Each structure stands twice: as structure tokens, then as C-alpha cells.
Amino acid sequence: MLGAEVKEQSLIKYQGGFPFGLETLVFDESDVAGKMIFKSELQGCKALYASAVFKELCEAHSLTGVLFDENLLNIF
Q1: What is the per-residue pLDDT across 56-73, written as a single tens digit (0 to 9) for each?
Q2: pTM of the predicted protein model
Q3: What torsion, rounded to 10 degrees, do the Cα atoms 26, 29, 35, 38 define?
Q4: Gyration radius of the chain over CA positions
Q5: What is the C-alpha to C-alpha distance for residues 65 and 40, in angstroms, rounded to an integer?
Q6: pLDDT tens digits, residue range 14-52?
Q7: Residue 18 phi/psi, 5° resolution?
Q8: 25-52 burial string, b = 16+ CB within 10 Å, else e?
């Protein structure tokens, strides 16, 4: 399931005149409000993004094996 990005605030990074990832990624809060897990089309659907509700559920049930990072574009 894709989360809608705010195109005006989600900026593509260029290197040597060619697209080279994203500088910033901002999701439309009203679109992702009802989604627990979603992907970004601009980011190439390469990562999963989760809502705060999903994170809280994982923590409340002591689930492990998932790393939550506030930096949306952190690849490591």
C-alpha cells in the first residue's frame, strides 16, 4: 500500500544532473492516517514506513526484529 507524498516538500536529489535518491520525503498525514504500514512511490517502494500506532503496538507486545528510525531516508 502506498502512502501519498507531499510532492512540494519531497525533493529529489540530483548528482551529475541525474536523479540520485531523495533529499527529503514528506507524507500526506491525512492519507497515511489510516495506514499502519505503507511504502513511498518516490522512494521506489524500497522501504517500509510505519505509523506511530504500529510502533506502539509492537512495543506494547514486546515484538522484536523490527528497527524503527525517525529518519525516513536512512538506508542503514
Answers
A1: 999 999 999 988 998 888
A2: 0.84
A3: -10
A4: 14
A5: 22
A6: 999 999 889 999 999 999 999 999 999 999 998 999 999
A7: -115, 150
A8: bbbeeeebeebeebbbebbeeeeebbbe
